[in-house]
Amino acid sequence: MLKKLTRLAKRQGVSFRQTYGRVSKRALAKSGRYFHARQNRRAMREVRRLKTMLGRVIRDIGRKIAGDALLGRIFEEILAFATCLYNQKKNDKNKMYSLNWRFHAHA
Asked: How far apart are CA 78 and CA 61, in angstroms?
């Protein structure tokens, strides 16, 4: 989701404080390796870092498009899914597992 948000923002000319491109890629790879090695505490630390980065990007986009109605409409759907993904908890009933099919037109 982080990659999809930053890609769409770049296309629309919205600049960021940080894009978290390299560090998010590295954190995702590390979390996969740690889960595979059954080092769950380390893996969850990387997942928390990814979630923190996603929250920062969501808030940054929200600040940048606050006054622009056109950008608000463009980002409306993807930001709704991003905040839903960001706010979901472990025990939620309706979780989102995959977003690949939803944003193929924007990607």
From this structure: 11
8 A C-beta contact, residue 2 and residue 103: no
Residue 46 in tokens: 């990387």
CA 87 to chain centre: 11
Task: Kindly state the helix (H) or strand (E) to which residue 48 belongs, with its residue range.
Answer: helix 40-64
Q: Quote the pLDDT of residue 86.
A: 94
- Which helix (H) or strand (E) segment holds residue 2: the answer is helix 2-12
> Residue 4 pLDDT > 80, yes or no?
yes
Does residue 2 contact residue 52 with C-beta atoms inside 8 Å? no
CB 96, CB 84: distance < 8 Å: yes
